[in-house]
Structure formats: C-alpha cells, structure tokens
Amino acid sequence: MSPAARTSLTATTLPLPGAQLRYRADWLPVAAADALFAALASSIPWERHRLRLFGREIDAPRLSCWIGDPGAAYTYSRVRFEPRPWPPALATLRARLEIACAARFNSVLANLYRDGRDSMGWHSDDEPELGAEPLIASISLGGARRFRLRARDGGAGVELELAHGSLLLMAGATQRLYRHDLPKTRAAVAPRINLTFRHVHGVRESARWASVAQG
C-alpha cells in the first residue's frame, strides 16, 4: 500500500452528545496532500451550483462538483445533481478510504473554497437517499478552515480547525441531531478543497462491487 494515505484510522473521538465523530489531523501525509490538492484543482470540472433557498435560486458560495458511480444522483436544496465520472486521483483515494473506514462509498461532493469569502451555511447532510444514519467521510486539503457543529435543539456544539490532509468522520445520529457550517473569514487563507465521501442508497451499484462479490 502506498504511503499516500493511512489505511488505519487512529483518530480522536470528539465529545458531542448523541453524535459519532472522529477526527485525524494527519490522515494524509503533507506531501501526499499537496500532490492531491494540485491534481484535483486542475482535473475536477468545477462549477457554481444553483441552490433553492426560501423560494428563490441563488449561487452557492463556493465551487463544487458531484462525482460518483453511474446512477448515484443526489438531490439537495431541491436540486438534482447527476454524477460526473471519478478522476483517477479520487478513485484511488476512495479505495484507500474504504479500507480505513471499513465502509463503501459510491459518491463524493467536491467543494472548492477559493478564499475566506467562500463559505457554507448551517445545514445537515440528511437527504433521504443517504439513509437514516449516514457515514460522511470528510477530507480537507489546502488552507485550514474553521468548522462548527451545533445541536438542532440549541444545546451542545463543537468547533475545530480542519487541517490540510485531515479526515473527519461523522456517523450515527450526527446528521439528525446536529447542523454544521464553514463560516466566512476575513483572515488571509489559502484555497481549500473539501471532499465529502458518502453512500447514496437506492441506486445501481458499480460493476466493481459485482466483480468483488464474485471473487
């Protein structure tokens, strides 16, 4: 196995009632994270998604790309996104991440935050096609940004800085009980790529899983 990603997941558990959160700041070594950022920045077909909020369409405050297996369409903010094919660098990363997490991922939302003005407001990844208790594996590349979670009922919350090459796992009831955001900042920050791997249910699985099952 290449040292480009850890295949074990010795991670810090974040104490948030009812949530399942684990964080490892150095899951990708710095050199591997640097190379992956450069490869994805140039190979992903970045676009500005249009979102529907409060009855009107607005531009998302970041650049994005929905990537996945055939049939892994995803709907959020009342907009349906069809998956683009996996770039080689992301396909390789997916395989290593699945080993580390002992899970299967058939899609990833790639986001590019160009500077501190790009952000994402409070939300949960709780769309029906993700299931009742989705596992979201979030990899951060580039400039470190502040990430916040807060309880839907106004209770407990947590804040951390997502480092270059880090991996944050959100599982269990996290999406049902909590919202998260990535706030704007006036500080000078480098561009950041965020990759949130997930499994969309109710779609045709890719041929690779059929071949694995057949041995």
Question: How is this fold's topology laid out?
Answer:
Blueprint: E1 12-13, E2 19-24, H1 30-43, E3 50-53, E4 56-59, E5 63-68, E6 74-76, E7 79-81, H2 88-101, E8 107-113, E9 120-123, E10 136-142, E11 145-151, E12 157-162, E13 166-172, H3 174-177, E14 178-182, E15 192-198, H4 207-213
Antiparallel strand pairs: 1-2, 2-13, 3-4, 5-8, 6-7, 8-15, 9-14, 10-13, 10-15, 11-12, 11-14
Total of DSSP H or I helical runs spanning 4+ residues? 4
State the total count of DSSP E strands.
Answer: 15
Strand order within the widest sheet?
A: 1-2-13-10-15-8-5
Helix content: 10-25%
Question: In sequence order, what are the helices and strands, one letter per element?
Answer: EEHEEEEEHEEEEEEHEEH
What does this structure look like?
The protein is an alpha+beta fold and 215 residues long. The chain is built from four helices and 15 strands. The chain has a seven-stranded antiparallel sheet. Strands 9-14-11-12 form a four-stranded antiparallel sheet. β11 and β12 (157-162) form a beta hairpin. It is globular and about 40 Å long.
Summarize the entry for a quick read.
With 215 residues, the chain is α+β, with helices and mostly antiparallel strands.
List keywords for this structure.
single chain, 215 residues, alpha+beta, Jelly Rolls, seven-stranded antiparallel β-sheet, four-stranded antiparallel β-sheet, 15 strands, 36% strand
